[in-house]
UniProtKB/TrEMBL annotation:
Residues 335-595 form the Mannosylglycerate hydrolase MGH1-like glycoside hydrolase domain. This is Amylo-alpha-1,6-glucosidase. Residues 10-192 form the Putative glycogen debranching enzyme N-terminal domain. Signal peptide: none annotated. Gene3D superfamilies: 1.50.10.10.
Length: 686
């Protein structure tokens, strides 16, 4: 992960990560550079004036797709008396454009050699992530009269970077340069265009809709303004809530990804830098979080995931009929089947979540046509739950990878190698069944029963699904309950032994509705208790467990998305006060990240750190972290579709003040919601 002082701009799955000067000097293992379709198209981009590197005075993140750098020649000193200043302004929109302005502040004329060193290693993002750069093809660099062509070929797989300039330049294999004479108070400008190409057989360009010219910058600005204008308006007495909300909307706009097969329609990519592509689980959960605010993302996500639903048994890709994909990649390693992501189906939660999103989307939108359009995909997903996923034959969803070389070991959302353990810290054998996925399966059956009865004209199927759901709930509450702890086990091993650790997964169980009513209070108490709730959010693994680590990826960190679903689950079972408590923690944390919540942060107690400690390799922005404040807004206001109308039942945290959410879209048209938080009596007394 790039260090925090880097500057990032992005548009869908095209992004640039650079130093504060705008320079790029990537090593094979650092995610700095210009990336698109899972390939690094620029690994070196270094500007010098008369052979000197430049020093950053400041930089501006103008929008998610553009930035500006203010520079002077030479090394940083305590006193800057520069006779030249340099402004680099760049934008990304499918490809990359940079303008350079140089101003002469001296009383005499100057002669300058302006040089841009450029190179492309065409690293696959997996090579960077895995810290292994092992190119098997041929790289080339061709200096042409009006451009520099950098390329890579391996059979029919070709990637090229084409660099040209509005001002005449001298191109060589390692970059390009200008010789410029500037009179006193004169300035010089040039525009540099970097076009990225993915070339197929016969040199056919596989990329569509590249946006590289200045007019497209205006189009991006107009698109962002339109995106924000369509979303509900949020007004609040809480100081940072409105700015956090706007940051979330902007980051969602930045993360919109248009797969090549969709003709411009977008769904949320998972997160920068490693996951700027289509993820089944991440895209679905983000859509669920953001439905009241950006419902248009859900229809696209459902359609593309339905279109790419598994149709056969393929051990390499872990594909089954009816299974929803986990991840789709476009880089070299996927093209040559060195990775299975073309697409890869190794997740057990995306399939039931697909059914859940379809129902939730209809409840909000009234889009009956899409429910009917995706009926067969929904039925196939439900069949996968009952047939392919039940590896042990006891009615639960299990996982065990079939691709033992490059497939994921853990195929739940906590997919790191050591995230599933017994209370003694040892790891269970495979296959494994995690608790939250059983809750998703239960919820999927209940929701699909509604769709079958109301839209598919199949009441018999609806009754079957409801019967199966009731049986699943009964079995689950028998097999997964840890009686001496008062919570549900994280997982079962193939012999039925419980992985009896206390984890945040129990919050997902509340959200799904699978928790027995007489046990919900104990579960709620754990979620806001000292072992799970840090004061900032819900820890993934409870303090005191053997594998607990406040900066362990899935073993003690706080994931904002995870906490948001815990809050939604608490609200579902009537624990509005508890939901407001953990919502307040996450929203307080957001202000320390300028409104942009990272993928994860440390699980340290709030009184211990006074501020949330960012996880060192957290993605940012990340889609489901971006969606967390939006879901928490929904939870605090108690927004629920009900019989074609929007029900509002607010319960705000103490001291939150008044919140207004205006023009909430849905089948009801657009409506407003208002709420006022309770006063903090302790502060008033002091």
């Amino acid at each position: 992960m790039a260090p925090s002082h880097t500057v990032r701009i992005l548009d869908g799955n095209t992004f640039v990560v650079s130093e504060a000067t705008g320079d790029i000097e990537a090593t094979p293992t650092e995610p700095t550079g210009l990336f698109s379709i899972d390939t690094r198209f620029l690994s070196k981009w270094v500007l010098t004036i008369n052979g000197e590197r430049l020093n950053a005075l400041s930089y501006d993140d103008l929008q998610y797709y553009e930035s500006r750098f203010f520079l002077v020649p030479g090394l940083a000193t305590h006193y800057v008396d520069a006779k030249l200043s340099i402004i680099r302004e760049r934008a990304v929109g499918g490809s990359f454009r940079e303008s350079i302005t140089i101003l002469n502040h001296d009383e005499k004329a100057v002669d300058l050699e302006i040089r841009m060193d450029a190179a492309a290693d065409f690293a696959d993002l997996f090579e960077v992530k895995d810290e292994i750069l092992n190119k098997k093809g041929e790289s080339y660099a061709e200096a042409e009269p009006d451009q520099l062509r950098l390329g890579y070929r391996r059979g029919n797989f070709r990637r090229e970077t084409l660099i040209s300039s509005s001002e005449p330049a001298s191109y060589d294999r390692n970059g390009f340069s200008y010789r410029v004479h500037l009179e006193p108070n004169e300035q010089w400008d040039t525009d540099i265009h970097v076009r990225t190409h993915a070339l197929g057989p016969g040199g056919r360009d596989l990329r569509i809709g590249l946006r590289v010219h200045g007019t497209e910058r205006l189009a991006l600005q107009h698109d962002l303004e339109e995106w924000i204008a369509k979303a509900p308006k949020v007004n609040s007495e809480h100081g940072e809530l409105c700015s956090t909300y706007r940051r979330c909307l902007v980051d969602l706009a930045a993360l919109r990804f248009a797969p090549l097969s969709l003709g411009g329609q977008t769904l949320p990519a998972a997160g920068l830098p490693w996951f700027m592509t289509m993820f089944g689980r991440d895209s679905i959960l983000t859509c669920l979080q953001t439905l009241p605010f950006t419902p248009q993302l859900s229809a696209t996500t459902l359609r593309i995931l339905g279109a790419l639903q598994g149709t056969r048994f393929d051990d390499f890709r872990e594909e089954d009929p009816g299974r929803i994909l986990h991840e789709m990649r476009y880089g070299e390693s996927a093209a040559f089947e060195e990775q299975p992501h073309s697409p890869y189906y190794g997740s057990v939660d995306a399939t039931p979540l697909f059914v859940i999103l379809l129902d939730e989307y209809e409840r909000w939108s009234g889009d009956v046509a899409l429910v009917k359009e995706l009926e067969q995909e929904c039925r196939r997903a439900l069949h996968w739950i009952d047939d392919c996923a039940d590896l042990v034959g006891n009615g639960y969803i299990w996982y065990e990878r079939r691709n033992t070389d490059t497939g994921l070991e853990n195929q739940c959302w906590k997919d790191s190698w050591d995230s599933i353990s017994y209370a003694d810290g040892s790891l269970p054998p495979f296959p494994r069944a995690t608790c939250e996925v059983q809750g998703y399966a239960y919820d999927a059956k209940i929701r699909a029963a509604r769709l079958a009865r109301d839209f598919w004209d199949d009441p018999a199927y609806a009754e079957q699904l409801e019967r199966e759901a009731a049986q699943l709930k009964e079995r689950f509450n028998r097999d997964w309950w840890v009686a001496d702890g008062g919570y549900y086990a994280l997982a079962l091993d193939p012999d039925g032994r419980q992985c009896d650790v206390l984890s945040s997964n129990i919050g997902h169980l509340l959200w799904s509705g699978i928790v027995a009513d007489d046990r919900a209070e104990q579960v709620a108490a754990h979620l806001v208790g000292d072992r799970l709730f840090s004061g900032w959010g819900v820890r993934t693994l409870a303090e005191g467990e053997v594998r607990y680590n406040p900066i362990g990826y899935h073993n003690g960190t706080v994931w904002p998305f995870d906490t948001s679903f815990c809050a939604w689950g608490l609200r579902r079972y009537g624990f509005a006060e508890e939901a407001a408590t953990i919502a307040s923690g996450i929203l307080d944390a957001a202000r320390y990240f300028d409104g942009r919540l990272p993928e994860a942060f440390g699980g340290y107690r709030r009184e211990q750190t006074k501020f949330p400690v960012e996880y060192p390799t957290a993605c940012s922005p990340q889609a489901w972290s971006t969606g967390a404040p939006l879901l928490l807004l929904r939870t605090m206001l108690g927004l629920e579709p009900h019989e074609g109308h929007l029900a509002v039942e607010p319960r705000l945290p103490v001291g939150m003040g008044r919140i207004e959410v205006l023009d909430i879209p849905g089948r009801w048209g657009r409506v407003d919601a208002f709420a006022r938080g309770r006063l903090d009596l302790h502060k008033l007394a002091s």
